[in-house]
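Hi support team,

I'm filing this because I wasn't sure whether my run with fe (ii) ion finished correctly. The job status page said complete, but I'd like someone to confirm that the output block is well-formed before I use it downstream. Pasting the exact inputs I used:
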Amino acid sequence: MLSQEDNDFFCRVGPTTPGGQLLRRYWHVVGATAELTDAKPKKRVRVLGEDLLLYKDRSGGYGLVAEKCSHRGVSLYYGFVEKDGIRCPYHGWKYDACGRCVDQPFESPEAGFKAKIQHPAYPVENLAGVLFAYLGPLEKKPLLPKWDLLVRDDGKKQIDICETLRCNWLQAMENSVDPTHTYYLHSHTLKLKGDPDFVPYHYRMLNKFDFEFVNYPTWAGIQKQRIFEGDDAPPETPHPLIFPNILFVPVRMGYAMHFRTPIDDTSTQVYQFRFSPSKDGSLVAQPENTPIEFVGTTDEAGEFHMDNFTSQDHMAWETQGPLADRSREHLGEGDRGVLMYRKILREQIQAVQNGTDPIGINFDSSKDEVIKLIHEDGYDAFSFAAARAG
Ligand code: FES
Ligand SMILES: [Fe+2]
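And here is everything the job wrote out:
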C-alpha cells in the first residue's frame, strides 16, 4: 500500500517532478525510422508530458524539437522540412536539430536576434530503425546502450507499435516483476478461447520464483527466475526487467524487448522490438528501415479483444485506472517483485534528487560493448512447450 504522496512521487513524469527527472536520465524510444518517409517526414510525439515534433531532415538526420515555434507558438508539424532543419510555416523561422534558430527571414541580421533563441530540442539516435531520444541535461547524456537484439544481424527484426496504453507507465513495469500473472491472464484465457498458444505457461504451475537485483556498468535491473513444478525442465533462462522501463522476454521464434515510453502521467506508448535469430547463425540482409507493425489491443467497440498477450496485458494494466490508486491495494507474497522494484525506483529517484547518477547508465566509451541479453542455450516456456509438442 502506498500513500497518495508516494504514488505521485513514483508515477508523475513531467519535467519538474522527481520521477520525471529520473526518467530523463535514460534514452527513450520515440519512434521508428519506418514511420518517417519522404512524403511524411514528421510525426507529433508526446513524451514525458512534453509535446514534441520528430522529423527527418532532407539530409537524412533526425530531429526532436518542441512542437510549438519559439516565435509565436505555431505548430511546426505544418512546417517545412529542409536539408538542415525545420522551418516554421508561419513566418519561416528555421531551427536545426540542436534547437538553434538558423534563419529569421524578416528580422534584420544586424540585430543578432536569432542568436538569442534557443528552441527546446533533444538528441535523437537511430539504432536498428528504432529512434531513441534523450530528454535530460546534456552534460549528463549517457551512451546509448547497444542491446544485442538490436545490434545483431544474424536474424530478422521487427518493431511492433502497440495501440496506445491509456494508463501510467508504472503499471506496465510492475507487471514485469509479476510472474504469477502468466497462468490465468495469458494461458487460461487462451485455453478457454481454444487457442493452441495457451501452452507455454499452462503445462505446470509455478513452483518458485526469485528476483535478483543486478547492476552492471551498462545496465541495471531485476533478473527474474521462474521454476515450474516437475523435474523435466531446468530453471528458466533469466528475462530481466531493465531499469527503469524495459522488459526483455523470450517470445515464440525469438526474443523481444518491450520499451514503455511514458507519454504523460496517464498514457504510455509501448514499442516491442522483436528479433528472430536465423537457425544456422547466418547473417540476414537488413532492410534500410526495420519493418513496423501496428498491434491493436481493442475491438471496434473499444473493448479488449484478449486474443493475444499484448491485449491481455494492456487489459490488466489499464483497468487498474489511468493512474492506479495504490493506497487501496493489498500486496501479498506473490508481489515481492513489485516491492523490490518500487524500492529500487525510490532509491534512484532520491539519488537524482541528491545530485548523483542513477544506476544503469554508462558514460565510458571503453565499456560501451554489445549488451548480451540472449542466452540461446537457455530454457524458456516457449521452447519447452514447442519441444513437448514435438
Ligand atoms: S510563429 Fe513560427 S515563425 Fe512565427
Ligand atoms: Fe504478461
